[in-house]
């Protein structure tokens, strides 16, 4: 079990989640640019075709991994320690999420709509506790602050999970020497706000302005694809919500996703 994830002592207190408008070196803004570049659209179309084929193959591999883990659990039964059993279940859960992700890619390539449900974002984050810890890595201390009794929001749960993991992985890359990651969920009127904040290297104002553009990355030499924040932005836009980025070089970055309640659109 990852031991770097903890729950805030009093998650009902919203004081830790107040988002102030900061001046000076901090750059803040809604980052949801339209895809208006013909070259960009062509590259995305090519990626889409390739992704459909990769998703099919990865789906097959995920089935093999899941079946193998189930077989191991049946074979070794009670002879393994509780920690190993929990680890196996978490890995199998990650494999199942990956399989769901590949199905979503295939459905999207066929033009099928994503499966939308009424989701409690706070509960979803708590259910992802172990996965968030693994994605953040052992050098990062993770704190979850979740306000109870949140209004439900309409979204695709699998896409929400993918968006959160994208944000956590981005935060991990910004804190290679370690740091703190806070994932907060609270009510804001009839809206729900999800905030993922790190104490990493932060971004320059120029980087923030381009942060959600497909293929833009601040770490091209270390394998950054430039698609993480772009996919998060597309996800929250599809839910009728908003996304904001606060970043200060040398101090860290906070990404805020605002989800509308089940009946309306989020306020900009």
In a few lines, what is going on in this structure?
The chain has 268 residues and is an alpha+beta fold. It has helices at residues 38-76, 82-109, 121-127, 129-136, 157-174, 205-210, 228-238, and strands at residues 5-7, 27-30, 117-119, 140-146, 153-155, 179-188, 191-198, 242-248, 252-259.
Key structural traits:
268 residues; alpha+beta; Heat Shock Protein 90; 2 domains; 7-stranded mixed sheet; two-stranded antiparallel sheet; globular
Can you offer a commentary on this structure?
With 268 residues, this protein is α+β, with helices and mostly antiparallel strands. It has 2 domains: 5-36 and 116-259, 2-Layer Sandwich (Heat Shock Protein 90); 38-109. It is 44% helix and 20% strand. It contains 7 helices and 9 strands, in the order ββααβααββαββααββ. It has helices spanning 38-76, 82-109, 121-127, 129-136, 157-174, 205-210, 228-238, and strands at residues 5-7, 27-30, 117-119, 140-146, 153-155, 179-188, 191-198, 242-248, 252-259. A 7-stranded mixed β-sheet has the order 1-4-6-7-9-8-2. A two-stranded antiparallel ribbon has the order 3-5. Helix 5 (157-174) runs antiparallel to helix 7. It is globular. 33% of the residues are buried. Mean pLDDT is 74; it is low at 9-27 and 29-37.
């Amino acid at each position: 079990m990852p031991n770097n994830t903890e729950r805030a002592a009093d998650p009902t207190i919203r004081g830790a989640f107040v988002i102030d408008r900061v001046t000076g070196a901090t750059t803040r803004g809604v980052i949801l640019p339209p895809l208006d570049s013909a070259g960009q659209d062509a590259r995305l179309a090519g990626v889409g075709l390739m992704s459909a084929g990769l998703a099919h193959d990865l789906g097959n591999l995920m089935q093999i991994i899941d079946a193998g883990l189930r077989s191991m659990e049946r074979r070794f039964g009670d002879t393994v320690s509780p920690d190993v059993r929990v680890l196996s279940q978490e890995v199998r859960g990650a494999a199942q999420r990956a399989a769901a992700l590949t199905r979503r890619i295939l459905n999207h390539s066929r033009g099928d709509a994503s499966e939308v449900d009424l989701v409690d974002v706070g509960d979803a984050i708590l259910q992802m506790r172990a996965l968030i810890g693994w994605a953040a890595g052992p050098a990062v201390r993770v704190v979850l602050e979740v306000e109870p009794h949140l209004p439900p929001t309409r979204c695709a749960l699998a896409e929400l999970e993918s968006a959160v993991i994208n944000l956590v992985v981005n935060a991990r890359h910004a804190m290679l020497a370690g740091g703190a990651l806070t994932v907060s969920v609270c009510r804001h009127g009839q809206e729900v706000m999800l905030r993922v904040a790190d104490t990493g290297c932060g971004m320059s104002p120029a980087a923030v302005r381009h942060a959600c553009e497909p293929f833009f990355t601040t770490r091209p030499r270390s394998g950054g694809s430039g698609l993480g924040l772009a996919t998060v932005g597309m996800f929250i836009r599809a839910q009728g919500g908003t996304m904001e980025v606060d970043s200060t070089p040398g101090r860290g970055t906070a990404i805020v996703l605002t989800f509308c309640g089940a009946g309306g659109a989020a306020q900009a």
